[in-house]
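Entry type: protein chain
Record version: 2
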Amino acid sequence: MSKLLAPNFAPELVSQLRNYGRLMRLDKPVGIWLLLWPTLWALWLAGEGTPDQGLFVVFVLGVIVMRSAGCVLNDYVDRKIDPYVERTRTRPIASGAVAPAEALMLFAALCLIAIGLATMLNRPAQLLSIVAAGLTIAYPFVKRFVSIPQFILGAAFGWAVPMAFAAQTGETPELAWLVFSAAMIWAVVYDTFYAMVDREDDRKIGVKSTAILFGEMDLFVVAGLQLLMLVALLLIGVRTEMSIWYYSAVAIAAAMMAHHLWLARERQPAACFKAFLRNHYIGMAVFIGIVLHYTFHPGTG
């Protein structure tokens, strides 16, 4: 009898594992990249071009695990909202593919993995990881009560920066908070583009966002935030005595920002979503600039 059940059981198991992967957004890795790039900026800056290899592995795994945990918790909290939003109604919990209890168990398992990774860090980084966990848990709830949940998301996505500095150097210098500021502002920018996709649905169901708060001034405010991010990136360059490689990368990032504004100029959901998806190339460009600087100008920074 077990031989008869096995052929049917295996496909069902694979299908459900695939649903768990979708719940963790492993099929949509852009969120991992958006979280990973500032983390890599911080590791390379803190390590002056040669970050600790063990820390590199821990932080990359931590980014994947924490982003996955955040997605699972977000979908659990939004399980009664997602069925009424066009873009989210096919998510695993909203569609019934994954039960809420299963989602909570998956979230708990991911948290245990994250705790295990945190034990490999030094004490200052471990203390900062507690804040990171709090921000991750808080975000899905705050968008019901505050008009700027993107700033909470920005803090959550940028918090790996001071953690990386603390893990690498044992402290969080002024540079760490400058990089954190750039990462947080950037998150508000790209998540505002993301929120512009769902703006009409969010208005109907009462979910708050910067896209709704900014209203008709949305692109003007986003442009201002992009300018602030560029200023922060330039200050980082001055603070670390970066070379032309870094500043060229920042110039490329600025051109990308302008292109994203142009894409979203008519505020069409598909175009705003494209602007969101392409934002991670900004983080990649800045990281390449940092790596090239330390490659061709070792011992500086």
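Comment: The chain has one domain: 9-296.
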